[in-house]
Amino acid sequence: VVTSLHPGVTREQVIDATGWEIRFADQLETTPVPTEQELTILRELKARTEAHHAGN
Questions:
Q1: Contacts of 1 (CB under 8 A, 6+ apart)
Q2: How far apart are CA 41 and CA 8, in angstroms?
Q3: In whole angstroms, what is the distance from residue 7 CA to residue 40 CA?
Q4: For the CA atoms of the chain, what is the radius of gyration?
Q5: How far apart are the C-alpha atoms of 41 and 44, rounded to whole Å?
Q6: How many CB atoms lie under 10 A from the CB of residue 2?
Q7: Which of 14, 27, 41, 51 has minimal CB crowding within 10 Å?
Q8: Helices marked H in 1-56 — which ranges?
């Protein structure tokens, strides 16, 4: 069950991007914007993942 949507994302976009039936909560929240710390962690994780897949 989808309980929140990112800012600017519609139910229709979620449905179109998914290969199965999606259920939505009666009350949908808006996903909070990530903090700078969260963005830093995500960027570091992405870099480590890319390096691992490149064989480094």
A1: 23, 24, 25
A2: 23
A3: 20
A4: 16
A5: 5
A6: 14
A7: 27
A8: 11-16, 36-53
- Please identify which residue in the block is written with the tokens 């710390």: 37
Task: Count CB neighbours of 24 within 10 A.
Answer: 14
Task: Give the C-alpha separation, 14 to 11, whole Å.
Answer: 5
Query: How would you write the pLDDT of the chain (56 residues) with one tens digit per residue?
Result: 999 999 999 999 999 999 999 999 999 999 999 999 999 999 999 999 999 999 86
Tell me the C-alpha distance between 50 and 24, whole Å: 33
Length of the chain (residues): 56
Residue 2 CB contacts under 8 Å (≥ 6 apart), including other chains:
11, 14, 22, 23, 24, 25, 28
Q: Which residue has the tokens 């993942």?
A: 49
